[in-house]
Amino acid sequence: MMIAIASFILLFLLLLQTVNTTNFTIKEATIDDIQSAFHQNKLTSKHLVQFYISEIHKLNPIYKAVIEVNPDALLQAQKADQERKDNAPKSRFRLHGIPVLVKDNIATKDKLNTTAGSYALLKSMVPRDAGVVKKLREQGAIILGKASLSEWAHFRSFNAPSGWNARAKQAVNPYGASLDPCGSSTGSAISVATNMVTVSLGTETDGSILCPSSANSIVGIKPTLGLTSRAGVVPISPRQDTVGPMCRTVRDAVYVLDAIVGFDKNDAVATRRASKYIPKGGYLKHLKSGGLKGKRLGLMRAYPSFGFANDTKTLNKFEKHFDILRRNGAILIENLEITNFKSIISMFNGETLALEAEFKLALNAYLKQLVASPVRSLADVIAFNKKHAGLEMIKEYSQDLFLEAEKTNGIGKLENEAILNLAKASKYGFEKLMMDNKLDALVTPYSDGSTPLAIGGYPGISVPAGYDENEGPYGICFGGLKGSEPTLIEIAYGFEQATKFRKPPPIKNQL
What we know:
Elements: H1 2-22, H2 31-39, H3 45-63, E1 66-69, H4 73-85, E2 99-103, H5 131-138, E3 142-147, H6 151-154, E4 164-165, E5 169-170, H7 186-193, E6 199-204, H8 210-215, E7 219-222, E8 242-247, H9 250-260, H10 268-275, E9 296-299, H11 312-327, E10 331-333, H12 341-347, H13 351-368, H14 378-387, H15 400-407, H16 413-436, E11 441-445, H17 450-456, E12 460-467, E13 473-479, H18 485-499
Parallel strand pairs: 2-3, 2-6, 9-10, 9-11
Antiparallel strand pairs: 1-3, 4-5, 6-8, 7-8, 7-12, 11-13, 12-13
């Protein structure tokens, strides 16, 4: 009897040792970690999806980062597991079997709704997957669900707080309930930060990838306009809208970027024009050590109204970051000046005027092509919000941007003048600054440079840069000229690897 018990104990210890040595922790796992676990039979896509669904059920009531979970996510996971078992060609893609949350303004032709956070689009039917979703599916990624957002990508009202929408209500920054989750891709950022998903997609018109990435301590890439398709995305402005990855590491963001860039016949003009910027063999080769060496990085300290904070507190906070860049081989070009600054900054004033007119035209076109929809125009959406004000948590008047957009009548003289001025501001402001000083990137605190990048269709990458005295996260942004993603990736990866500032939010303290 004693021998049997001893044998049982020995067997148990051996089994325990085996479990410990093969144990795999999903939280904070990268795509590479997950793929390695897949191929070592430590993890399946089904288990991964089950884990994330469990985390969503546990955490989402607090953070309001996910609007819907895909009821077919487990079926997609089982399919991925079988493809991996069969060594199917698709199983060799880095995103194969990886769950992705997409912002709820990005169309999916499945059982999920695409509503931009509004009840007005609930039960609408899209004609097809968005271009970026189609590319994700082709790579074998699993569409886990829809991430929450600031309603209508924060273009319903300036009075609504970041992260609020009628369907999911107010999203919460996981690093502190009093902290602004920032921008409109709030759910995409929060879900990644809290490990409710591996990676996500966000969209940006002006700051909505860069700002929530900074505020929630993740990496966000805002691509060059047209590098990723906007087809199937609830629009604001074809002149400024873009789709990009939001992830915990630069490497994961690059994997996602590689998967979603390229030509799309449904966004043909923009994607054809930008396709020339895609490097042969993709972006992965730009994740290399020493990426900061020799890079010329510009710093502006005197132009807060151009989107760059110059208060003493901010500058002092970021001096250590500038030193890190220098120590890793970057050449910092400081105290840059913009010729005719007052004239150029005045041209920014037309951004909202242009966006309102573009929004009405683009949204009406989007709504009309839906297979089914409760609303078919911006006017219908405004009427819906008035009729169903009881569904809202903000007052009826808080659709002021909608009301102003509805007053517009196409792109007239004033709108054309505003758009022309924005183009001039880009050419004689940001572009001239970059080229005259032979800069590889402009460095800005937080997401303060988002507007110059937005109006010119330029790319930017936000990387976690630390935490303030209240443990609030903040990022640093590297922005460049159109098509400069390879260089920006080298810079961002170099900074990330030199610092590794990111740490997960203190979720246990908030449960």
